[in-house]
Amino acid sequence: MKIKNITDEFIEFDNGKMITFDHYQDCCEWNYADFKQLDDIGKNNIFNEPLIFEAVNGCGFRFGNTDAMFFIPCYSEQNGYYSDEIEIYYDGKLVLKFDAEEKLD
Q1: In the chain, what are the domain boundaries?
Q2: What is the DSSP letter of 101?
Q3: 61 Cβ contact partners less than 8 Å away, ≥ 6 residues apart
Q4: What's the pTM?
Q5: How far apart are CA 95 and CA 54, in angstroms?
Q6: Residue 67 phi, psi (nearest 5)
Q7: Plot region of 73 (φ>0 → left; ψ -120 to 50 → alpha; else → beta)
Q8: Is residue 103's pLDDT more than 50?
Q9: pLDDT tens across 40-79, in order?
Q10: Which residues pair with 28 in a beta bridge?
Q11: DSSP letter (8 states) at residue 43
């Protein structure tokens, strides 16, 4: 499968499956996956099922297959008083839950 579309909200594959993120937002925070930072090799790669997902402590996550993994940075914009947790979903199922930790003030 190939990537069909990348937005701020998701990565969509040509089979209709998507990688998305979620976070229970508190008052003054925004935790997100920066899908648009996927490099050109990842954008043009052919992926096989099942996809593998790995958290990269304090930075984001990687996804792909055993022969090629691609990095997506995750960020937490806040004043330092809130959670930096983020959840990553594939095809509507939770695949990762971790701390984005890289806080942007």
Answers
A1: 3-104
A2: -
A3: 33, 53, 54, 55, 71, 72, 74, 88, 96, 98
A4: 0.86
A5: 9
A6: -90, -20
A7: beta
A8: no
A9: 999 999 999 999 999 998 889 999 999 999 999 998 877 7
A10: none
A11: H
